[in-house]
Amino acid sequence: MEDGLKRRSIQLTINFESVQNSPINIDNARKALLQALIERSFKYDERPVFKLTSGKTSNYYINCKATTLNPSSMLLIGSLFYEKIRHLDVDAIGGLTHGADPIAFATAMVSAMSEARGQRSEVGDQWSDLRVKPVQAFVIRKEAKSHGLMKVIEGNVSEGDKVVIVDDVVTTGGSTIQAIDRAREHKLEIVKVIALVDRQEGGRENIEKKMVIFESLFTRDELIDAYKNKP
Ligand SMILES: O=P(O)(O)OC[C@H]1O[C@H](OP(=O)(O)OP(=O)(O)O)[C@H](O)[C@@H]1O
Ligand SMILES: O=C(O)c1cc(=O)[nH]c(=O)[nH]1
């Protein structure tokens, strides 16, 4: 924790006029992100050709990286994830590399942009969304680094920090649970867990057994509906 820094959150608006002309509305951002996931990430085949991390096969696959690494989607992701944590006392956001990384980075970036707007509000500007301290991003490695500082967790987090664990997809929840366990081994306090997509295959239940709050931005059902109704 950085001492002496307090956060205030006054107004619930996401307004990126400082970086682009059209402000982002949360409902519109969600719709746009769903569309991006369908266009870039959702793959379907009549045969179960997609092999999953668990070893099972599936007839659909959500390659979230094609969306999470796309710059306009990053802005949407950062805004939507930040919206879910901005009222909480959170020091940092991260998860198991690689799925979690772009989500954590985008959210941290949006939190810093929010801080910049807060500074403007102090000089009487219209932006009154004030967060004095941005959220740090961190990365949990699958294996400890074998040289340098030999770290498992990279980023500016330390014992006692309040963190949010993220993942791009939750299927069995195994990857997210690995992140939860590693974070706890490092004495990080988990405030909640947020996934971009919940495949509704038992992951939520498995994660909740770790006594954490679990949320997702989208479910498999929503994605499949959107895929079927694709113009
Ligand atoms: O809920 P689970 O059954 O664990 O499956 C979901 C995980 O699978 C994918 O990661 P992957 O193992 O493909 O690794 P990568 O992100 O490093 O590519 C995805 O990013 C999730 O982390
Ligand atoms: O279970 C997985 O490994 C998995 C499923 C999916 O839809 N997308 C992904 O990246 N991983």
From TrEMBL:
Supply the SUPFAM superfamilies for this chain: PRTase-like (SSF53271)
Pfam families assigned to the protein according to its UniProt record, in alphabetical order: Pribosyltran (PF00156)
Q: Where are the transmembrane segments?
A: none
The UniProt record lists the EC number as 2.4.2.10
Q: Which cofactor does the UniProt annotation name?
A: Mg(2+)
Broad class of enzyme this protein falls into: transferase
Q: Tell me, which GO biological process terms does this entry list?
A: 'de novo' UMP biosynthetic process; pyrimidine nucleobase biosynthetic process
Query: What InterPro entries would the database entry show?
Result: OPRT, Or_phspho_trans_dom, PRTase-like, PRTase_dom
- Sites binding 5-phospho-alpha-D-ribose 1-diphosphate sit at R141, K142, K145, H147, D167, D168, V169, V170, T171, T172, G173, G174, S175
Residue intervals of the Phosphoribosyltransferase domain: 136-214
Please provide the record's keywords in A-Z order: Glycosyltransferase, Magnesium, Pyrimidine biosynthesis, Transferase
| Record: residues binding orotate | T171, R199
The pathway entry for this protein reads as: Pyrimidine metabolism; UMP biosynthesis via de novo pathway; UMP from orotate: step 1/2
Q: Which reaction does it catalyse?
A: orotidine 5'-phosphate + diphosphate = orotate + 5-phospho-alpha-D-ribose 1-diphosphate
Q: Provide a Gene Ontology MF annotation, just one.
A: magnesium ion binding
What family is this protein classified in? Belongs to the purine/pyrimidine phosphoribosyltransferase family. PyrE subfamily.
- Explain the purpose of this protein: Catalyzes the transfer of a ribosyl phosphate group from 5-phosphoribose 1-diphosphate to orotate, leading to the formation of orotidine monophosphate (OMP).
State whether it acts alone or in a complex, and with which partners, per the record.
Answer: Homodimer.
| UniProt protein name | Orotate phosphoribosyltransferase
> What species is given as this protein's source?
Kuenenia stuttgartiensis
Q: What gene is it encoded by?
A: PyrE
